[in-house]
Amino acid sequence: MNKRKITDLFNVKFEPFDNYGKTIPGMSWHKISYKKNKGGTGTYILKMEPGAKSLPHQHNGYEEFLILDGKLTDKDGTIFKKGDFVTFEPGSQHSSYTKNGCLVLVFMRGINQPIKNN
Q1: Is residue 118 scored above 80 in pLDDT?
Q2: pLDDT at 108
Q3: Which residue in 51, 32, 40, 30 sits closest to 96, CA to CA?
Q4: How many other CB atoms are there within 10 angstroms of residue 25's CB atom?
Q5: How far out from the chain centre does Cα 56 lie?
Q6: Which long-range contacts (CB under 8 A, 24 or more apart) does 30-33 make?
Q7: Which CATH code for domain 24-114?
């Protein structure tokens, strides 16, 4: 089966998260099938260290994720915990942070667009 790939989600090498052109402090990722040059589609594992914050962004396609470990708090105060599967539809906007760190399995169907602060 040369077209099959098995990934041990808890034993991968992480690299600095640089999907928006520069690294974001406290965030790293392991790309499973994600291809930025193919429209920002695919899957990756995102690791957020304690205190890490994502950039505010808009979803141009669906973004879905499964919290594998820890908790992630969205800008509106909603807390996503281990086992939660979250869907953001195209056009939705948000940012999130983690107090104690988290591990997230992300499924992307379109690249996100960072939102500049006013």
Answers
A1: no
A2: 94
A3: 51
A4: 10
A5: 12
A6: 32/5, 32/7, 33/5
A7: 2.60.120.10
**3-state secondary structure at position 79:** strand
- Yes or no: say if 25 and 95 are a contact pair by the CB < 8 Å rule: no
Residue with tokens 């006013």: 118
Residue the block writes with tokens 């996100």: 112
Q: Output the DSSP codes for 6-73.
A: ---TTS---EE--TTSS--TTEEEEESS-BGGGTSEEEEEEEE-TT-BPPPEEESSEEEEEEEEEEEE
Name the phi and psi angles at 104, rounded to 5. Answer: -130, 135
pLDDT of 40: 84
pLDDT at 96: 96
On the 0-12 / 13-18 / 19+ scale of CB atoms within 10 A, 44 is: buried
